[in-house]
């Protein structure tokens, strides 16, 4: 009569438990959402983010409470404005805000996906908007902190397709200090109704103007020397 | 709509048996015939079963054309390292697809075909959508993905030529009590490797939910691809911790060694599972409810919990030596 040989599964499970238990108690065993965002990881990293940025948020009352929306912010080069703006807006609104523009290479891409990053592709943006998510897209990076770069119309297009509102978001941070500001403007309404691709091109230009207007409203140091401005206010 | 003749290819597998059992309870199904290399794993009351190898094309054509089905459900897909290795899986799947889809095309009564596919067809190359929906391009990056894409292509071409509805169910990795799955087997090992740098999220589907989707697709004459995915997502590390297994963090080159060792211990890791662990595998399954009228009952974390809730050895009573 053949004998059943069993792997010592109980002993292995006990060893596994002893090893993993401290980690398990500190980390929930299910914390990623449908898009791979991990609120628990974000919560764990929040103190470190606060060491770098002390963000004041304004205008968040403009954003919808339940439905999806596309947010477009300006971006100073290397400032990670989309990341801190998304984290700050998530905290202010109580809804996850996903930023667009994560790389697709581990480990940075994986980490940013856990922070709520999406690829800078219309399909990713459209997928999130169709699921009533708040998605933050960055305009092209600029060297000047108060210049809004061109808004990528191929990333605004999904908002037109999904029929969700678009909001301008002005961001400003300092390269040396912690202070940062995120201001959400009122919904951008297209001037004309278009049936074709002009809708997204015109909407992108309009959003850029709105972001620029918000940035102009911030005021700030104007030395006339761009590097000094950049260092002074970031 | 009553009295429909339904042919299930791959009825011997766990998913096929489950689909057949559910079809037997459907009022619109009149006659049910199954083909596979293994006998069904459940007691079926009405179904007629034919034990046929995928290479026996002439006999398959004979059985299918004589039955002259209204609906064909093709589940004859061998996932690499699930029931057989990659080489055989590729050969069996290609043979079965050619024989079944080709034979079905000869049936004058045929109205609809539903084929099993998977979210692996989207591939996970750099820049691939994080959570592809059905409109995402089919660009497989694994052997299994290519196998499934070939089945879809064959079915689509036949559908176009003879003018029938072709539904393609792109399933997330199927896990269930008795489903042979390399992912499920790997996750149930005492020591489970995971990519510490990526630990990407993925979604799965329970076999019962997948079977219900096939029945609904056949009933509704689905004529397009649809993702069948449980809601929610989980990372490998989280799955390991849910299962109280020992996580083995790996960075890169040692994956090769880990995969070989895992093979020795009975849980080979095919390339699509490695891809899932490194790059994740999410898909947008929102359209399934709209097109099929049914949503997955279990979420991804619940399916993973079920995976770990199974007994390693189920004892069904003592065996007396005197009797033996």
Task: Give a written overview of the molecule.
The complex is a heterodimer of chains A (234) and B (324). With 234 residues, chain A is of the alpha/beta class. Chain A contains 8 helices and 7 strands, in the order ααββαβαβαβαββαα. Chain A has a 7-stranded mixed beta sheet with strand order 1-7-6-2-5-3-4, sandwiched between helices. The longest helix of chain A has 21 residues, at 198-218. The mean pLDDT of chain A is 87. Chain B starts with a strand and ends in a 15-residue tail after the last helix. The model of chain B has no long low-confidence stretch (mean pLDDT 91). Chain B has a domain at 4-180 and 203-230: Rossmann fold. In chain B, helix 3 packs parallel to helix 4 (143-162). Chains A and B meet through helix 1 and helix 5 of A and strand 12 and helix 7 of B.
